[in-house]
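haha ok so turns out i had the wrong file open the whole time. this is the CORRECT one, sorry everyone. sequence first:
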Amino acid sequence: MDNLRKELAPISEEGWQEINEQARRVLRNNLSARRFADVDGPKGWDCTSVSLGRLNVPEKQADHDVRYGVHLVQPLVEARVSFKLKTWELDNAVRGAEDIDLEPLEDAAAKIAAFEDAAVYYGFDAGCIRGLKAESDHKALKWPEKAEDALGTVQDGVQALRAASVEGPYNLVIDAKRWKAVESHVGGYPLRNRIQDALGGKVIVSPNVKNAFLVSGRGGDFRLTLGADLSIGYEGHDTESVQLYLTESFTFQVLDPAAAVVLA
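then structure:
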């Protein structure tokens, strides 16, 4: 028996299939950082930290023959979101129902995806994650009020990355409201296509950002380390419902601070 204890849950094979498929759909639509960062793992639950490849050597040490240094590591954050599903509703999967109510699962999946993305973009101090916004070497660029000026801002960001010897392609991570304004712009060659041409990479529309980020897509600049990838576990049940949870363990590192520009 593993630590997820799924075999103890009073859920049929058909019920688990519905749960897993819906969780994958929601997570795929909500997780955005994994679309540009290098994902290392999953390495397993026993992976609890990542070596930073450096030693902390105290300056003042006792005057004897043995000196020492302590390895610097970055801990992994273990996240968990609990949710309840109606047992009777899950049993309907066996009866052939194709419209199982899994809203609590969908909410939990959106929450844990938002937690991971927020740590990547804005940092998580308790988990020693600084995040893209704090790590970027570049001065933040202001996103324009008028959609037609967005291309110029993106081009300025691309130029800043190139000046820092960060090669393309480049990806734009942006919130849905700003990208909708870009897509709605009318006049000549579509603005969205001109922006994508300038990037040479992807536009990643994320529900979990409050601004936009221009990031390198060449690889090797951002690393998301997974101990345990997103998984569903069992917590308990009564006669009416079963309590499950979504969990993962991860950390995020910016390996080259010059590879990201904040578009505020």
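The mean pLDDT is 96.
again sry for the mixup
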